[in-house]
Amino acid sequence: MTPPPSASKTSKHNRSVTPSRPMRSDLEQFAERCRAWYYQQDDDAGRLMTQTLATLPPSQRAPFARLQASIRSAYHASVNARRDAEFKAHLCATKLGGSLMPHSRADPRGPLAKKERFERLDRFIRTWCTMGMPGTKPFFQGLWAVMRLQVIPQELGGAGPYRIEWEIDDAVFKESGGREFMLEAIDVLKGVLAFEETALSRSPSTNSSVQYTATPLSPIHSRSQSQPHPSQSTSPTRAQKTPPIASRTQTKRPRAPSDPFLDTPGLSTSYSSANTGLSTSSSSAADEPITPITPNADIDDLFARAPPGRDFCEPEGYLRTWTAPDLPNPEFMKLLALFPPFITQSTLPRFPVTPISRRPADIEEGEGLEDGHKEIRVGTGRMWLGQKTRADGWQGNWWTRFKLWLARVFC
Fold first, then answer.
1. 80 φ, ψ to 5°?
2. Which of 7, 274, 299, 361 has its CA 20 to 30 A from that of 199?
3. Phi and psi (nearest 5°) for 312?
């Protein structure tokens, strides 16, 4: 007769196996593959990275996924930082009208300068202002509106003798059409047409500066470190080692106790003291082989460690004012003919017209301060009439003024 199984063997087979943590060497090897894929575009490293994530057991997939996300975030932060630095450097290096040929710069209002401006803008529009590039359409709609409003008299809602100020975000240059569009747009606006630019302030989309690191501290590990053991909570030196990011992580995104990505919390003192009697009954399981587990500090150190030379700050988003160039109306009209129909068919709003009978506002009496500048929005950004006036001769010769008069009467 077969004897019944003992209680110790039954508890052995029914006892669930604790999932093992990934080894530090595996995480380091996976991190190197992720960096090679994102920073160097190594196809073999990308294939091995994807294969590693697909073949991992579910109990070990979380730390690898967090490590991949941190490296991917650091890569995008570095790309944004490089693009922002290149944008500012090219903007500072470009002078007003400096992209024209030397003989055109010597006489900006001469026929050679007008011809070069026409050809450069024509090439820029034919390259980037097409139906297949919807990302650049708002930019060209705003540029066309600025030029169109400059030739409309002020009593009809145009700019008249004043120069329009066009406020747009730097992201329009950096994200609309890629690096080549960014560089060429700066050349055409500032170096060819002689738009004057002035940086205003931080963009409203970025209210605070955020530090990016290549491998930031995982929120899960920072949460576990922010709650020290009760026996060490009275030590002042221990309290100073708490990562500063931990408090922000808890308040920003609270986790439920059932979250599978949370580390198993340590037993409290009261619970462990109340269950000391169970230690004798569970001593039979001490002879089982235990799977080696990577210490928590090693994995935490891998996530907290940032490779040298890979600390990036989020580029500050600036709103920049571009003042319309001081060109005469005949040249503006020739440049307006270069825009395609899907841009020129857009609705053109007008600036509010001030009645002629109304006397000018007296600033000393406080008039005219409550309204500020009256702005309109076309394409991207906003625009208003600036304080700068155009040079003499901006209306052109008598023939140009006659044609504009006919257009106002019969159109």
1. -65, -40
2. 361
3. -130, 145
Take residue 278 and report the two structure tokens written for it.
Answer: 């169970």
- State the pTM of this model: 0.63
Separation between Cα atoms, residue 177 and residue 3, nearest integer Å: 79
Angstrom distance (rounded) from CA 218 to CA 59:
17
Q: Which residue matches tokens 């990036």?
A: 312
How many angstroms separate the CA atoms of 369 and 305, rounded? 54
In three-state form (DSSP H/G/I as H, E/B as E, the rest C), the secondary structure along the chain is CCCCCCHHHHHHHHCCCCCCCCCHHHHHHHHHHHHHHHHHCCHHHHHHHHHHHHHCCHHHHHHHHHHHHHHHHHHHHHHHHHHHHHHHHHHHHCCCCCCCCHHHHHCCCCHHHHHHHHHHHHHHHHHHCCCCCHHHHHHHHHHHHHHHHHCCCHHHCCCCCEEEEEEEECHHHHHCCCHHHHHHHHHHHHHHCCCEEEEEEECCCCCCCCEEECCCCCHHHHHHHCCCCHHHCCCHHHHHCCCCHHHHHHHHCCCCCCCCCCCCCCCCHHHHHHCCCHHHHHHHHHHCCCCCCCCHHHHHHHHHCCCCCCEEECCCCEEEEEECCCCCHHHHHHHHCCCCHHHHCCCCCCCCCCCCCCCCCCHHHCCCCCCCCCCECCCCCEEEEEEEECCCCCCCCHHHHHHHHHHHHHC
Measured CA distances, 246 to 236, 249, 301, 350 (Å): 18, 5, 15, 52
Per-residue pLDDT of the chain (411 residues; tens, 9 = 90+): 555 555 444 444 555 555 567 788 889 999 999 999 999 999 999 999 999 999 999 888 899 999 999 999 999 999 889 999 999 999 999 999 999 999 999 999 999 999 999 999 999 999 999 999 999 999 999 999 999 999 998 888 999 899 999 999 999 999 988 899 999 999 999 999 999 999 886 544 444 333 333 344 444 444 434 444 444 444 444 444 444 444 444 444 455 544 545 554 444 444 444 444 444 444 444 444 444 444 455 555 555 444 444 444 444 558 999 999 999 999 999 999 999 999 999 889 999 886 654 455 555 544 444 445 689 999 999 999 999 999 888 887 666 666 666 665 665
CB distance 182 to 169 below 8 Å = no
Could you tell me the two tokens for 318? 């600036």
